[in-house]
Structures are given as C-alpha cells and as structure tokens.
Amino acid sequence: MSVLENFDSWKDFLGDRLHQAQGQGMSDRAVNELAFEIGNYLATQVDAQNDQETILRELWNVADDHEQHAIAKMMVKLVQNEGNQA
After folding, report:
1. 7, 35, 55, 68: least CB-packed within 10 angstroms?
2. Which Pfam families does UniProt cross-reference here (predicted)?
3. Alpha helices in 1-86 (DSSP H)
4. How many CB atoms neighbour CB 8 within 10 A?
5. Could you read off the pLDDT of 34-80 as tens digits, one per residue?
6. Does residue 10 sit in helix, strand or coil?
7. Which of 39, 49, 47, 41 is nearest to 6 (CA)?
8. Taking 90 as the threshold, does the pLDDT of residue 14 lie above it?
9. Are 13 and 46 a contacting pair, CB within 8 Å?
10. Alpha carbon distance 50, 36 (integer Å)
11. What is the value of pTM for the model shown?
C-alpha cells in the first residue's frame, strides 16, 4: 500500500521526513520551500488517491503562487506533530 492511499499514513510519512530534515539542520524556510515544490509536483504529476488529496489538489490548482506557498506552509504545520519524532 502506498503512503498516498491513506491520508493519515501520508501525514505520518511527511511528519517523519520533516523531523528528519529538521534533525539535519534544514531551516524552516528551506522546509517550506521544499514543501511548496512537493505540493506542486503532486498537484501536477500524481493522481489523488483519496478525498483529502483531491481537495488539496483542487485548492492548489485555483491558488496563485502566494496562496500555494501558504498551503505548503500549512501542510508543514499540519504534520509537525505526526510521525516518529525520534
């Protein structure tokens, strides 16, 4: 099963990657920019696997660049307490 098939699994996966990046010293600004790039890739290259991803894709597609950066930043905030924080 792909992590994209279940939104909770996806959030755990993102949380793990976030904690890993922060543990390696990546700045918040760099994390947010990477989240923007991932969001753009997912919205344009990957089929949504569940209702939550469909909604995120639709929001991303109607948003301007500034709003897309805000969505990416909110996704980072959403997953900050997800995954293994070891």
Report:
1. 55
2. DUF3243
3. 7-23, 28-45, 51-62, 65-79
4. 11
5. 999 988 988 999 888 889 889 999 999 999 999 999 999 999 998 88
6. helix
7. 49
8. no
9. no
10. 20
11. 0.81
